[in-house]
Every structure is written in structure tokens, then in C-alpha cells.
């Protein structure tokens, strides 16, 4: 146990620390509850998006297969050269109980046939449909990325809060309680010793007075000695 | 012109095209490898063997089909060498030049590695591999156009004319559209004469222009692009559908309304489809019907004058149909598509 001064001041200080630690623990628990609730909301939404992604991906690959089969893979590849384009994302952040999570600005990823960059003649509606479905898939992927990052961050924060609550509950508060109890016992012990000592002195003085014959009266000057 | 010998050879080549029974056997193959083994028993044997050295699986089949296609048409050009029919047939092969130039321009414009661009080229037209290799090595789009002009390649004309517009917008569609317009205009100009061969090629090209225009209109309507912006993608020279009619179609509010306008024309069959096709706005379904129509029309050339270019034109479409069907079967085999679905997807008519 940490060395502590068994004084009344120290006891008051320790009691204040215990109150503070318990308040901190309660706040952390409340924060954890809110984070867990947000986490489960996100999980439900993530599962929905995941299913949406699977459907979008399978749809996109079916369209790609048809386009490759009918138009030839080199025609598709050639069209894909022209359709290459960087996607500028607007990523901001929002706070959930002090945890910053990303918010990806929902940019319109779907392009029309003229925006894709390839000419109309020499390509086909099959290629357009495949491109459009992959653009849809990309939107869902971005949505998932946003949710997954938020879930990771919330998960990490929940874990950290739990560790803090555990540390407060299992280590700090019991330790402070032990110290407070130790101080209290030490003060009580000292009080008992003082009382006993006083009683002993009183008895000694009374015996001396009885021997001197003054009727057992003890005056102030005797105590002072 | 004497067509006896060339047409006899083309009829011989036609007899070696795969029939429905063979295609059905290929469809029944369980996977791509057994399909390749089966193709080795067909006239594609040499191409499959050559492709097997470079690629495997579906890539080897696709490479073999492209190689066979190129080889076949080089052979036909050899049969007609020095005769007017050679020039008429070349019109159909020039579309590969257009496709190759577009691919090179796209590759250069978006800094695609040279090898990757080269893999996407099909040397079936006038531009050989050396010319295309040199084009790919140019540093930018401007240099490619300059190179074509220096070598007096005809495709330099439309590109040079529209280059200033491209330089301003940096939009490749401008150059691609110029190439497409040039291809069809040049093709039609080459067959302005009155003789039977020229009339036949002209009819085929004009029908194709109609089909291309209808497809363009449908794709633009689906993406809600109208007005002047849309009109510049239409190609002049169609057989039945005039520009004014197509522009009116572009103003239609929906695919259904646009297709209903085709009722009473040769393309009225597009309006007689299940209503769910309109709701889904799947342009590919309408394209499939148009492609089938075009192939059927091309194949009908076989039943025309046997001592004319009709036999070669019929063969061109039959070969195109066969190659497309084989590619569909091969691709579907890689994705475990049910046999019945493959049969529905096939283009043969």
C-alpha cells in the first residue's frame, strides 16, 4: 500500500478522491451506455448496407459479364480507359460523445453517358448499364466505409471506457477505500491511546493526592505537570 | 466483275461456319477448359493453339476469336484483291480502324501504359500493328493527330478539323464523334454509284446507321439528355429514319413514348415488347433486338444475287454472329450461367 499520512486532513482528501472517482466511474458508464447504443444502431445500418452491397455487386458483375460477352472485353477495357476519373470526396467529421467519426459528403457518383468520357457510337447500352451498376456499388462502398470507420472508432472508445471503468472500479476506488480505512483506523487507534494515556495520568494523579491527603482533588497545576 | 471464283471460295468458307448443333454442343460443355478442347476440333483449331501459348482460359478463347476474325477477313481481302469489291468490303473493316484509333486516343488521354493499350487493338482494318505501335508511342493526343496527318491516314481529317474544339473542352467525345461521323459519311460516299454491289453496300450501311441512331437515342433518353447536346451524336445518312424524326424521338419524355413513335416504321418491333422492359429502362434489351435485326438483315444477303458482293456481305455478318456467339458461350461458361440462359443470350437468328 502507498505510504499515507494518517491524519484527518488526509482522510478528508481521500474521501474527496473516492467521491470524485465514483462520479467519474458513473459518468464513464453513462458514456459507455450511449456509445453502445450508437454502436448497435450503426451495426444494424451497416448490416443493411452490407446486404445492399452484396446485391449491388452481384448485379454489377452480371451486367459486366453480359457486356464482356457481347461487346468483347477489349471494347469494354477501351471504354474503361476513357471513364477513368478521380473521385473527390468531401469528408467532414461529427462527434458522438466526444468520439470524432467521419461523414462522407454524399456526392453523386452516377454519371450519364456523356459524363463517362467515351463516345456513344462503338459502345453500347450494356456497357452503360455495367458502368452504372458499378457506380451504384461504389456509392454503397463509400457508405459502408463511413459506417465501418465510425464503428471501429466507437468500438475502440467503448473498449477504452470499459478499461477506465474497470481501473476505477477494481483498482483505484478499492485502493482509496483501503487507504481511507487505514487512516480512519490509525486515527481511532491514536484516539484510544490518548484516552487511555489520559485515564492513566488521571488515575496516577488521584493516587498521589490520596497519598498527600487532599481528598483526591486535582488542580490545574498538577495536570499541567 | 467476275464473282464466280471469289464467291465459290466464300461459300466454301461459309460451309465451315459452326452450325446450331455445334453451338449447342459447346453450350453443353461443363467448363471453359472442355469448351477449349471442343473448339480445337473446329476450324478455330490453329487460333486456339496459338492463343494457348500466350493466354489461358477465357482470355485464350477471346484472343483466338479475334485472331480468327482478323485472319478470315485478311483472307477475303486477298480473294478480292484489286477488284472494286475489295474497296466495298473494306468499308466494313474500317470500323476496326475507328475503334483502334479511339482506343489509342483514350489511352493517351488518360496516360494508360502502352502495353495495356496495345492489347486492346484489333488489326483487322487498314491500320497495321506497326502504324498503331507508332501512334501509341506518341507523347500526346496532338502528336497522334499530327502523325496521322503526316502519314496521310484519312482519319486525320476529322480529327484535325475538330481538334481545336477538343483542345478547349478536353472532352474526347468530340474527337470520337468526329471519327464516327467520318466513318459513315466516307463509307456512303464510296458507294454512291448505281450498280447492284454499291446499292447493296449502301443499303446495309444506311440500315446500320438507322440502328446506331436508334440505339443512341435510347441511351440518351434513358440518361435524360436532350436538346442540341443530344442531336450532335446523330449520324446522317440513315435509310428510313430522318434526323428530324430522330430529334423528335429525343424530345420524348420516356423510352416507351420514344419507342411508340417507331410504330409503323421498320423498327416497330421495338415497341412490341413486354411492358416491364419499359419500366426497367434496360436499353440493352432493345439493343439486343436491334442487333438481331441487323444480323438477320445481313444474313439475308446470302439469298440475293449469288454473283454479286451479297455473298461476301452475308458472310461478314455470319462470321460476326458466330464470333459473338462463341464469345457469349465462353464468357458464360466462366460464370456458370445455366445452359438455357446462354441459349437466350445468343445472337444467332
Q: What would your notes on this structure say?
A:
The complex is a heterodimer of chains A (225) and B (349). Chain A is mainly α and 225 residues long. Chain A is built from four helices and two strands; from the N terminus they run ααββαα. Chain A has a two-stranded antiparallel sheet with strand order 1-2. The mean pLDDT of chain A is 90. Chain A is rod-shaped. Chain A has helices at 8-71, 73-83, 125-212, 220-224; strands at 91-96, 99-104. Chain A has one domain: Helix Hairpins. In chain A, helix 1 packs across helix 2 and helix 1 (8-71) runs antiparallel to helix 3. By secondary structure, chain B is an all-alpha fold. Chain B has a domain at 95-190: V-type ATP synthase subunit C fold, CATH 1.20.1690. Chain B has 19 helices and no strands. In chain B, helix 6 (84-109) packs antiparallel against helix 11 (172-190) and helix 17 (283-299) packs antiparallel against helix 18. Chain B is globular. The relative contact order of chain B is 0.11. The A-B interface holds A 61, 65-66, 68-70, 72-75, 77-79, 81-82, 84, 112-114, 117-122, 124-126, 128-129 and B 62, 66, 95, 98-99, 102-103, 106-107, 109-110, 112, 116-117, 119-122, 171-173, 176-177, 179-180, 212, 215-216, 218-220, 222-225, 229, 233, 235, 282-284, 286-288, 324, 327-328, 330-332, 335, 337, 345, 347.
Amino acid at each position: 500500500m502507498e505510504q499515507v499520512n494518517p491524519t484527518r486532513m488526509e482522510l478528508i482528501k481521500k474521501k474527496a478522491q473516492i467521491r470524485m472517482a465514483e462520479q467519474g466511474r458513473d459518468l464513464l458508464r453513462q458514456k459507455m451506455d450511449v456509445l453502445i447504443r450508437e454502436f448497435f444502431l450503426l451495426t444494424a445500418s451497416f448490416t443493411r448496407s452490407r446486404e445492399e452491397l452484396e446485391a449491388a455487386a452481384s448485379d454489377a458483375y452480371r451486367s459486366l459479364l453480359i457486356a464482356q460477352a457481347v461487346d468483347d472485353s477489349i471494347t469494354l477495357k477501351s471504354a474503361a480507359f476513357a471513364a477513368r476519373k478521380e473521385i473527390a470526396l468531401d469528408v467532414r467529421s461529427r462527434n458522438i460523445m466526444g468520439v470524432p467519426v467521419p461523414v462522407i459528403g454524399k456526392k453523386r457518383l452516377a454519371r450519364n453517358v456523356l459524363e463517362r468520357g467515351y463516345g456513344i457510337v462503338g459502345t453500347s447500352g450494356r456497357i452503360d448499364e455495367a458502368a452504372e451498376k458499378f457506380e451504384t456499388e461504389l456509392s454503397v462502398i463509400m457508405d459502408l466505409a463511413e459506417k465501418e470507420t465510425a464503428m471501429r472508432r466507437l468500438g475502440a472508445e467503448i473498449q477504452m471506457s470499459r478499461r477506465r471503468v474497470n481501473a476505477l472500479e477494481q483498482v483505484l476506488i478499492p485502493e482509496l477505500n483501503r487507504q481511507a480505512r487505514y487512516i480512519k483506523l490509525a486515527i481511532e487507534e491514536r484516539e484510544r491511546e490518548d484516552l487511555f494515556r489520559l485515564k492513566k495520568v488521571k488515575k496516577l494523579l488521584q493516587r498521589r493526592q490520596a497519598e498527600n491527603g487532599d481528598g483526591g482533588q486535582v488542580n490545574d497545576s498538577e495536570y499541567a505537570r | 466483275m467476275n464473282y464466280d471464283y471469289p464467291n465459290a471460295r466464300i461459300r466454301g468458307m461459309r460451309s465451315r461456319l459452326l452450325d446450331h448443333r455445334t453451338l449447342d454442343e459447346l453450350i453443353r460443355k461443363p467448363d471453359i477448359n472442355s469448351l477449349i478442347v471442343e473448339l480445337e476440333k473446329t476450324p478455330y483449331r490453329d487460333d486456339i493453339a496459338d492463343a494457348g501459348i500466350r493466354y489461358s482460359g477465357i482470355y485464350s478463347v477471346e484472343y483466338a476469336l479475334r485472331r480468327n476474325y482478323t485472319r478470315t477477313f485478311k483472307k477475303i481481302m486477298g480473294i478480292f484483291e484489286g477488284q472494286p469489291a475489295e474497296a466495298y468490303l473494306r468499308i466494313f473493316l474500317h470500323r476496326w480502324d475507328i475503334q483502334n484509333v479511339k482506343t489509342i486516343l483514350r489511352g493517351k488521354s488518360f496516360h494508360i501504359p502502352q502495353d495495356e493499350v496495345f492489347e486492346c487493338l484489333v488489326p483487322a482494318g487498314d491500320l497495321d500493328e506497326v502504324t498503331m505501335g507508332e501512334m501509341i508511342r506518341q507523347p500526346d493526343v496532338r502528336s497522334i493527330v499530327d502523325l496521322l496527318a503526316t502519314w496521310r491516314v484519312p482519319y486525320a481529317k476529322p480529327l484535325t478539323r475538330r481538334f481545336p474544339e477538343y483542345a478547349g473542352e478536353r472532352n474526347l467525345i468530340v474527337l470520337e464523334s468526329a471519327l464516327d461521323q467520318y466513318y459513315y459519311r466516307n463509307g456512303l460516299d464510296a458507294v454512291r454509284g448505281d450498280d447492284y454491289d454499291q446499292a447493296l453496300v449502301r443499303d446495309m450501311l444506311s440500315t446500320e446507321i438507322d440502328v446506331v441512331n436508334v440505339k443512341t437515342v435510347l441511351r440518351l433518353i434513358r440518361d435524360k439528355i436532350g436538346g442540341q447536346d443530344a442531336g450532335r451524336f446523330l449520324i446522317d445518312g440513315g435509310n428510313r429514319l430522318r434526323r428530324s424524326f430522330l430529334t423528335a424521338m429525343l424530345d420524348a419524355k420516356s423510352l416507351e413514348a420514344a419507342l411508340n413513335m417507331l410504330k409503323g416504321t421498320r423498327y416497330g418491333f421495338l415497341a412490341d415488347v413486354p411492358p416491364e422492359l419499359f419500366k426497367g429502362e434496360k436499353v440493352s434489351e432493345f439493343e439486343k433486338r436491334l442487333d438481331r435485326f441487323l444480323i438477320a438483315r445481313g444474313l439475308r444477303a446470302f439469298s440475293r444475287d449469288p454473283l454479286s458482293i451479297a455473298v461476301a456481305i452475308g458472310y461478314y455478318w455470319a462470321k460476326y454472329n458466330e464470333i459473338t456467339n462463341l464469345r457469349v458461350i465462353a464468357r458464360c461458361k466462366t460464370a456458370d450461367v445455366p445452359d438455357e440462359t446462354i441459349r437466350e443470350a445468343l445472337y444467332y437468328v
